[in-house]
Amino acid sequence: MRTSDSLRKTYGETLVELGKENKAIVMLEADLGNSTMSALFGAAYPERYFQMGIAEQNMASVAAGLSLAGKVPFINSFAVFATGRAYDQIRSSVAIANLNVKICGSSAGLSDFGDGKTHQSIDDIALMQVLPNMTVLSPCDAVETEKMTKAMVESKGPVYLRINRNDLPVVTDPNAEYHIGKMTEMVKGKDVVVFATGIMVQQSMEAAKILEKEGISLRVVNVSTIKPLDVKALEGYCEGVKGVVTAEEHSIFGGLGSAVCAVLSKKRLPIEVLGVNDSFGTSAENYSILLKHYGLESEDVAKKVRSVLAAN
After folding, report:
1. Within a domain: residue 17?
2. Could you tell me the pLDDT band of residue 2, with boundaries at 50, 70 and 90?
3. pTM: predicted TM-score of the whole model, two decimal places
């Protein structure tokens, strides 16, 4: 089992593999193919690879047309551009029509550490999950990315996939069953449950180790499908706990935290939401600096857990 790997490269390689059998898969790129790794598909199947230039709005509209023609189009750009720049076209041409268009937002969250606030997406989950018919996926590692990409091809309707730019530790069991909508308990615990997504799954698992030394039992659940949210499973994981924490590399508004709070609004459980606190990103020398600056480390998860316990 691999210990660390690139989500971007896994995404590109998986689509190359799937493209051998499924000739309907086509790839559209907004001039970032070597970064999003869509270029791997282009090298393998140049006749099914469309370089659209820096024109995400047009790319989304063309993808809608290709979908109507029976193709399975994947559109690719940095997450901030794939969702924000093309929002009107995704809403009007893809989501309203419920077309089979797949959107890959690469370098999501703060993971494009060097390019600052213009290239970092702390609002992409909010933009996509508010759209009816849209499925929103957020893998925590390369293994889950591979499974998600395969599931996206098999599913019908619009899907948004947000991918981290950096190599991440692998925590997903490669032999575990996967389907869109499934939550996975990563760490068993009984005192507090953390619903985490993306890189915050790994951080929450580390927080569980920190808290175990303090006699606190933390349950960690990977919510890799933000929408549709499995309400029954979410409520089940809250049974018997003293509090709830959500953790995401996204704004505290409109993301996983907002979705979980909406579901648990009638539950009498203290809830803490961990994410980016109503601010844009910034440039840094490396990714770790940004995670520390924005309070997205394992110790920050642990602090939130202590806070909900103190509220009892």
Report:
1. yes
2. low
3. 0.96
